[in-house]
Amino acid sequence: MFYRRILRPLLFLQDPETAHERTLELLARIHGIALRTVRPFSSPRLSLQVAGLQFPNPVGLAAGCDKNGKAIAVWPYFGFGFVEIGTVTVRPQSGNPRPRLFRVPEHGALINCLGFNSEGSEAVARRLAWLRRQKRPLPVPLGINLGKNRQVTGYDETLEDYRTGFRRLARFADFVVLNVSSPNTPGLRQWQERERLDVLLEMLCAEANALANRHGSRPVPIFVKISPDMTEPDVQDVAEVAVQRQIAGIIATNTTLERPEALVGVPRTGGLSGRPLRDRATAVVRLLYRLTRGQLPIIGVGGISTPEDAYARLQAGASLVQLYTALVYEGPCLPRHINQGLLRLMDRDGVQHLSEIIGVHA
Ligand SMILES: Cc1cc2nc3c(=O)[nH]c(=O)nc-3n(C[C@H](O)[C@H](O)[C@H](O)COP(=O)(O)O)c2cc1C
Q: 162 near 146, Cβ under 8 Å?
């Protein structure tokens, strides 16, 4: 209520990206305190093991909100059960010219064509090394989302770029996300195609194994994040490659280039997120669940803003969910509200543990 009545109107007086940057700067200042005191929202009925990791609840922060990992420990405070930072590029880059982030409040949506503005892998690695030195382990799993620099365009060059990003950052991550689905980096989405994806995953799985051997640990789980704009055969290709390469799972979905008819007068370029993406993202989760017969963990993201949305995404086959856009419209209490709502919906349906509902409506 406080957010919707007071804070949001103040934030919405500012240009969307400025509002975001200022909020993040503020959160970054309380990061140290958060790290010392944070306890995750956890309930035995909501906690899950996915890809060998323990999640205190299934609601995560999606990539793009904390691209450079400036406020990592603050997100569990809001009730998030895991955090994905990034996309991080190997070298720093400023992204596309501003303005490049637009609100569509009537539809609970955002459109962005940020184009991977990133401080780069070295700066993020330094920040994560600092976090590690604090000797206060984050109470929730941390994912790091990797992308490629814009000026990297060749085939071999792109593979090398992902390898470098992985080598710099994977050791700080509980899981790594391979972003091949952002619509704002020319040529990126072609890495979702069967052959290219297979080569990329083969390389990164080898890197993960080498890293694990050096540290005597298990290989860091790798997820691939896909677009909602793929045809069914394309999704099938991704699912088959993911299963064959035995990666940890798939994150579905990134933003869409489609513009539903109801959205008139909005920018045509850039990725659309939020409510208009919800049904399409759910459909992709359902398709993936069917194609993989529930064998491969799916993280469902896109347009989730209520406990009912999250519940439906899990029923469609997601093991975990994430959100970003709804946080802008509903405020920091949203993850906690969704978790509490999930418990309420489980009570209504006589469900003891969340795992019982995964894929029941696939
Ligand atoms: C402003 C903005 C920036 C984003 N940046 C990234 C990014 O860097 N990497 C990525 O994988 N996804 C990025 N996303 C996509 C989100 O992670 C998510 O997949 C998408 O927005 C759908 O979820 P939502 O409707 O809950 O926002 C971004 C989304 C927004 C709105």
A: yes
- How many other CB atoms sit within 10 Å of the CB of residue 319? 25
Q: Do residues 31 and 300 make contact, with C-beta atoms less than 8 angstroms apart?
A: no
pLDDT digits (tens, 9 = 90+) for 38-66: 888 999 999 999 999 999 999 999 999 99
Ramachandran category for residue 92: left, alpha or beta (phi over 0 → left; psi -120 to 50 → alpha)? beta
CB of 42 shorter than 6 A to ligand 1: no
pLDDT digits (tens, 9 = 90+) for 187-243: 999 999 999 999 999 999 999 999 999 999 999 999 999 999 999 999 999 999 999
Contact indicator for 312, 282 with CB cutoff of 8 Å? yes
Q: Is the CB of 220 under 6 A from ligand 1?
A: no
Look up residue 171 and give its two tokens: 């050791």
Count of beta carbons in the 10 Å neighbourhood of residue 335:
25
Whether the CB of 114 sits within 6 Å of ligand 1: yes
Element (H, E) at 223: strand 222-226
Residue 171 CB partners (closer than 8 Å, separation 6+) = 211, 215, 220
**What's the burial of 240, exposed, middle or buried (CB within 10 Å: 0-12/13-18/19+)?**
middle
Provide the whole-model pTM: 0.98
Lookup result for tokens 């899950």: 48
Centre of ligand 1 from the C-alpha of residue 68, in Å: 14
Question: What CATH homologous superfamily does 2-357 map to?
Answer: Aldolase class I (3.20.20.70)
Instruction: Measure CA 145 to chain center.
Output: 8
DSSP string of 23-92, one letter each residue: HHHHHHHTHHHHHHH------TTT-EEETTEEESSSEEEPTTSSTT-SSTTHHHHTT-SEEEEEEE-SS-
Among 17, 56, 39, which residue's Cα sits nearest to residue 137? Answer: 39
User: In this structure, which residue's CA is closest to atom 28 in ligand 1?
Assistant: 64
Backbone φ and ψ of 155, nearest 5°: -65, -55
> Ligand 1 in contact with 301 (CB < 6 A)?
yes
353 CA to middle of ligand 1, Å?
29
